[in-house]
Amino acid sequence: MNDTLRPPSKFLIGGAFFIIYVAWGVSFLFIGEGVQSIGPLYFVALRWGLAGLILLTITGGWTRLPKRKDLPRILISGLLLYPLGNGGMSLAMRWVPSGIAALIVATIPLWLLVIHWVLGRKIKYQWHIWPGILCGVSGVALLVFEGPTRDGEMTSRWPFVLLLGSSACWAAGTAYVTHHSKAVKILHDEIGFQMLAGGIMLFLASALSGETMVWPSSTTWVSLSYLVLIGSILGMVSYQYLLGHVSPVTVSTYAFVNPLVALCVGALFANERITLPTLISTALIVLSVLLLLKSGEPEEDLGTDA
Fold first, then answer.
1. pTM exceeds cut of 0.85
2. Model confidence over 237-258: pLDDT tens digits?
3. Domain boundaries, the chain
């Protein structure tokens, strides 16, 4: 993230966007399958803990332990992105189909704009922003009140509320990482220690919640392998690389591509039904994100702690 002295490679930028667009969209299918086989918090703890260990081993990050002044940044970003962000989403996906979950997670750009406003950052308000917010709220509301759960019957709405909360936490983590991007010396070390810290927090949460920590089945290991290597290591390196070179609101465009990928993959490989309310919600949320991205770019950078 501190390599801003050189202009970013267009090839790397394009490749990173492809990874967070497509690979993260497919990740919803593997998360949905994984949280059905073992405890959801235990599953996501394995994901991020293993990803952190592998990344630090491959890059030699163990020889460059974080300095004391860097620990608060690593712990805060690790908490927001992994236990509160991805962990909350994975827990909710025990009951919510992967495509529906991806649609609700598509509200992240909206949360980013709210965070910018709360932090007092100037936003270029245009006429698009209010229709965008209305479309987004309407799309999410339709999913919450009409969207199916995994068993086909709506029994509770709290998983949908959890998905919204986890999306807000991920957006807060994104804003925090961007704000501190120039204070990072070696990007892959930073991400590795973030993921390891988040994994440890998730293991503690899993133990406190009473989940049984069993050896995963071969099918679960397939899901974990994809999520650890592609979704976590490759995905997070791509994501935080983009946050160091591109506006965070622009980076968040992955949030409206992921649902389209997740809905198609879920229908093809997990027999998830695509209903009329789902299609209407998809159109509303995608339109919302497009309008917000068009009108909501910050007038100034998020700033750094360099």
1. no
2. 999 898 888 877 678 778 778 8
3. 10-295
